[in-house]
Amino acid sequence: MFVFVADPVGAGFVDSLARPGGNATGVVQFEYSLSGKWLDLLKQIAPGVMRAAIIRDAAIAAGIGQFAVIQSMAPLRSALSVAHRDLIITLAARYKLPAVYYRRHFAIRGGLISFGPNLVDQYRRAVGYVDGILKGEKAANLPVQAPTKYELVINLKTAEALGLTVSPTLLSRADEVIE
Phi then psi for 151, rounded to 5 degrees? Predict the structure, then answer.
């Protein structure tokens, strides 16, 4: 049986990510420090932005750690739940708000920029764990792995609609550019 836990150490499922012990191991989708990169990307793509808001699902435990990292970089006042990505993308466009998203499908569907783990890579790594366990490896001997591949997607159509010029440096770092 597979259980997805946002913070396996905090939830008490494992002693540490490097040496989980017991019958738990896996691949985590986020490393909290990634959250600070979102704010950095927002500053790069829209340097005039002076205030930022975070929309997150309060029911997801990982959001607490991610929000704390962002708050340490820039104090923010509120957080809401991400439930309707299309509505968020539509409202950001309507009100000409530059936004950074955590998954590529937001940028593909019209969001300005996304930066997050490459999920295909994550799934491939998870398959390797399942294969190892089915061949007799003990889960306790397999460290919990954080993402190693991240992808930056920039939607130039949206940037143009927002009146933003994306720097050549940022464009050169993009894994995918939507024109």
Answer: -130, 135
Start-end of H helices in the chain: 34-45, 62-73, 85-94, 104-108, 119-134, 156-161, 168-173
Q: Is residue 171 part of a domain?
A: yes
Could you tell me if residue 8 is inside a domain? no
Distance from chain centroid for Cα 35: 7
Give pLDDT tens digits for 167-176: 999 999 999 9
Domain with residue 126: its CATH number is: 3.40.50
- Each residue's pLDDT tens digit, 1-34: 445 555 666 667 667 777 777 777 777 766 667 7
Domain membership of residue 100 as a residue range: 34-178
Backbone angles phi, psi at 139, to 5 degrees: -55, -35
Number of separate helices (H) and strands (E) present in the chain? 7, 6
Q: For residue 86, is it within any domain?
A: yes
Angstrom distance (rounded) from CA 115 to CA 13: 28
Q: Which of 38-52, 76-90, 117-131 has the highest mean pLDDT?
A: 117-131
Domain count, the chain: 1
